[in-house]
Amino acid sequence: MNMPGNPAVFRYQLEARLRSGVARLLDDRRFTDHAGGTYDETMATTPSQSRITVEPGKCGGRPCIRHMRIRVKDVLEMLASGASEDQILADYPDLEREDIRACLEYAAQYFDHPVFVG
Predict the structure, then answer these.
(1) Rounded to two decimals, what is the model's pTM?
(2) The domain that contains 84 carries what CATH number?
């Protein structure tokens, strides 16, 4: 198994996997260093989540949609500001309705964790 050159990226991916409860081995994904080669990482835990991808060299390693430079955060911010799905799809013709739903599902899953109050 090749790990990315940046330990923080590897740690982020490992924590995301543990957070989501996915108990697959790390060998089932391809990693390379930042010097070259292929890096393919998805945040998939459900079929629609396979649309959310993370690549260290793209958008600062932030979650994007289907390897494009459209961040999940951007779609969520557009929805939060009142844009409809149809408006977003008109502004971003490469997006599909399923991509918007995958962003919402990703956000819901990301924030589904216990909060300890001391």
Answers:
(1) 0.59
(2) 1.10.10.10
